[in-house]
From TrEMBL:
It comes from Acrocarpospora pleiomorpha. It comes from the Bacteria. Pfam families: DUF5122 (PF17164). This is PKD domain containing protein. InterPro entries: Delta_60_rpt, Quinoprotein_ADH-like_sf. Keywords: Signal. Residues 1-24 form the signal peptide.
Amino acid sequence: MHARNLIAIFTSAAMVIPAGPAQAGIRQPLVVSPNPVGRTPHVLDGIVNAFAQVGDTVIVGGQFSRVRNAGSRAELSRQNLFAFSLSTGRVDPRFVPRMDGPVLTLAPGVDGTVYAGGSFTRGLARLRLADGSAVQSFTATAYGAEISSLVRRGQHLYVGGNFTQITRTARTALARLDANTGAVDRSFTVTPGGGETKITAMAVSHDRLVVDGSFTTLDGLPRPQLGVIDLTTRRVADWRTDAYAPGCSAAFPSYVRGLDLSPDGSYFVVVTTGGPAPRTRKLCDTAARFETYAKGEKIRPTWVNHTGGDSLYSVAVTGAAVYVGGHQRWLDNPFGSDTAGKGAVSREGIGAIHPTTGKALAWNPTRTRGIGVKAFLPVKKGLLVGSDTTQLGREYHARIGMFPMP
């Protein structure tokens, strides 16, 4: 199905399948192999929205109820969250929390824990990997709201969503918490505004927090859908682009989705939905690179890669490649409008872009498109992919797969 046929699906599903968060970190010297490993477990229904890694353990969040080990017929009940060993691929039998709503975002915690955010009752939780129990000393809650992005930097946990308060402290869409206790950091007060305010995705480095979402301002300063926060001053950085000010399709009043920083934090890439916009400067259905430490009011993307009418939801920047995923059919397609325009290359459901030139790399494993890739996680051993479909690299890998390093 192309973008026009999926508008109704995306509109109704937008609250439960946001893009995953990102944190600058893993650098990979090479592009991963196009042949997935055979040991990852299978998620048998629903969708995978998020990954986090704590040691050898990978935590998987989404909206699902059943999983299965590779090579096994035994189905295991797992309600929206489970864990498996990265080295063996086996599902962890101890970690069985029951989340009463979708898990939309995850972040690795300290002392063998993981943070989960989403549309479940509390909205935000810190869980022990040893048994799936909640850490009671972590008291942050976001009742009645959706937590769509989490990133941790040291003793700080950055929380994004559509909330108006965390526990009993007023905060709109963005907050910084104590990573141990969940207490709101009152010294961090950057506030998004405009429209139905929501942070969709975030990425953090040692001194910058990059955010995108449904907002037009940060602390009253014009920042349409994208902004950079200086963590040394806890103020909005002198960094502004109007690249996402123009509207795309009326079905997508806010169209930014995934976001990831390069391993050294010097640049980041944003992916979008929005509908076809051929032969224009609009960044609908694109991946675009921006320089983190550029300054000024008229920052333009370093490069833009167009799908020609199909949404991108997730991005992972590893140094060797910029991996993008959605339900796209093509990359290098600025002249297409749900068609393959001049120069377009086929990249069904997943692809890789050269980080310097912005052109599609030869890597082309393919995946069944469905709604799209909702989660990437680069690890030392490869690249984890989470989605809603079962074919990855022309093999059966239900909703989870991993491309290894060559």
